[in-house]
Amino acid sequence: MTGEIVALPYERPALAQALGADYEERLLAAHHWMTLARELDSRMLGLQRQGRIGFYGPATGQEAVSVAAGLASRPEDWIVPGLREQLVALVRGHSLARYVHHLFANDRDPARGRQMPCHPTAREVKYVSMSSVVGTQITHAVGIAYGLKLRKDTGVALAFFGDGATSANDFHAGLNFAAVLSLPVLFCLTNNQWAISVPVERQTHVKELAMKGSAYGIPSRRVDGTDFVACYATFAEGLEAARASPGPLLAEFLLYRMTPHSSSDDPSRYQAPDWMAHALAHDPVRRMEELLTRLGILSDAAHTSVREEATRLVKEAIAEAESVGAPTPESMFTDILASGPLPVPPRSEPA
Ligand SMILES: Cc1ncc(C[n+]2csc(CCOP(=O)(O)OP(=O)(O)O)c2C)c(N)n1
Ligand SMILES: [Mg+2]
Description:
Blueprint: E1 4-5, H1 12-19, H2 23-49, H3 63-72, E2 78-80, H4 86-91, H5 96-104, H6 136-150, E3 157-162, H7 169-180, E4 185-191, E5 194-195, E6 198-199, H8 210-215, E7 220-224, H9 228-244, E8 249-254, H10 275-280, H11 284-295, H12 300-322, H13 331-334
Parallel strand pairs: 1-7, 2-3, 3-4, 4-8, 7-8
Antiparallel strand pairs: 5-6
The chain binds thiamine diphosphate and magnesium ion.
Residues 162-164, 192, 194-195 line the site of magnesium ion.
């Protein structure tokens, strides 16, 4: 089944139904995380240009999906991300400081500089380091879901991937396997309408990517991915359904990529000049702020302090990360071998 949820403007009873009785608290928490994410993207792209970090993949325009996933998932769920879901780890409890240490690839980076930047690992919140090979995270998530089912674990695997990944072999293998074996996996398709320079209409001939899920017998729906409330309701409902049956579901989140693909990209070479204006009209952070303001939940003063707090938190994390040195060369061995490298035998001189 496909179909779009179009629900704004929300009134209070609808919010209570979608988010629970404590919806005001949940909306304010979501707004805090979205504001923090926006600040992180802007600072990190700047730091990359200054040569202070190596690489960055921004998530501007996709914050509502990640925050909703972070807030609606349970500790036993597994997150198998694409390039733009770091916020899910933070919302689930990974510390901002550790994430920023990772971006600087310093000695307190959990991966000690041995993973590409912006590919964090956050074991304590079951956030798996991203596989850069497009689509492979889908089969990884399906494997995790198979393990969860065999162990009778109540966790669900959340597989995040983009519109481009739906053309990869692993998408088809993963969906088929998950459907045939009824595995607890939620396929989270973030359709930001671009795979670097390839627009979605050149990626596929189907009208809606969600149809590809239906083709494998997986209940699939389209969701406005710039609407936090719709995203939250989708995750809350989808995760419980995948847990209870168990079985797979697919949600296609419609989005607008509001930045370059990554710090290595120049979209002015392939995007129409009016794309950004079009994307800005669907800014999820602005939509959230309009909702909070209309409901009287966020005053101008509170809004300013949320922004100031985000600026301060990111600034402090950067200062801390820059005060930590690089991993030592010895850590290459001590992180891996119980007793250090094998001694090198003395070289015997030829007689
Ligand atoms: C197998 C493979 N082919 C190509 C690439 C290069 N590449 C990196 S990201 C990307 C586009 C991914 O687009 P999409 O799946 O829509 O995700 P988005 O980046 O838009 O979030 C490509 C082609 C890769 N990493 N792996
Ligand atoms: Mg994409």
